[in-house]
Amino acid sequence: MVFTSPVRHPLGPSSTSLAMAVYMSAATAATATTHSRSLIQCGASSSASLLSIRKNSAIRCVSTAAEGEKTGGKVATVKNGGDELVICRVLNGMWQTSGGWGPIDRDDAVEAMLRYADAGLSTFDMADHYGPAEDLYGIFINRVRRERPPELLEEVRGLTKWVPPPVKMTSSYVRENINISRKRMDVSCLDMLQFHWWDYSNPGYLDALKHLTDLKEEGKIKTVALTNFDTERLHTILENGIPVVSNQVQHSVVDMRPQQRMAELCQLTGVKLITYGTVMGGLLSEKFLDTNVSIPFAGPPLNTPSLQKYKRMVDAWGGWSLFQTLLRTLKKVASKHGVSIPTVAVRYILNQPSVAGSMIGVRLGLSEHIHDTNAILSLVLDEEDMNSISQVSSNGRDLLKVIGDCGDEYRRT
């Protein structure tokens, strides 16, 4: 069986100016998933001073060292109060099932998921709008139940996202949508529900998160989390007593925005970061070292939604020439340790404060990088390595000023 879903990531590409060139448009996002959820982009976000956040904060400070985070371990614990979840520090990202990378063979994809899990890479990240991702997970988890020892079943984690339109968030509406994901993934309790909201001017996100917390209390969700929320709204959510454990944000050696305002609040509150875009869709690799993509047919094609998206991020940060300097620096570090450029790029982000885990996209049934991915978890970068990478990274533009805080690229018109 082949899936050919036309659904694209709701944060798909568009550009106008230097800042807007990195933004991903929701307007082209959704045609139909199997459950016909609509996706709408509107509104604009604003920023608040972290100084004022701290001054008015009623949020208590907590211990912030996640399991494995400072020890180089393979797992980390994201937690808030009594809610906690152990995840692999390198997560298998399933955006690639959403349609922009070609057809997906169901059986080949599930077999690939089993190989990743058998290799210890047992945390899968998906979303309601990633084509058949949740359905594939449902088939996969049933294979694990039938064909693998109970110990592996205990290790497997399925993290999904809900990306609703900014309509009235009633209890029944939230429950209905979460039940769709539970049914598709064939689980009674979602390990993690990561919530995205398009329009901050509509405060319905707080209603939705309160209803999600109710579902957590009922045992239908184990942990509630966020995706692409900014620092100001994360603070507001925590002050409203909503026990989110993590925020999934774009974070790479090029995009260091999360290490500014967001990481500071995370360190104060214990909320963790799960990062995506960490290898920039494959741009941070040997494939693009010493190439010139501005000349037609002279370099590797930018032929996937993620490559196109992150090329715009490179342009906003400092351009292709500076990016080549960065790749050469990463290659020097990689050669020193006998690993690849993407392995170093991910390890660098995993070493950043408050980062619990980083996403690596998996092209299920099409290509596999299990060995390189596992190498991330054993790689130790020394102070010289980290400093050399940080120096080149800091030579680019401050993307917090160019784009805004985490997630702002998805809310600007």
From TrEMBL:
SUPFAM superfamilies in the record = NAD(P)-linked oxidoreductase (SSF51430)
* Entries under Pfam families matching the protein: Aldo_ket_red
* Superkingdom to which the source organism belongs: Eukaryota
- Where in this chain does the record put each NADP-dependent oxidoreductase domain? 91-392
Q: What is this protein called?
A: NADP-dependent oxidoreductase domain-containing protein
**From which organism does this entry originate?**
Zingiber officinale
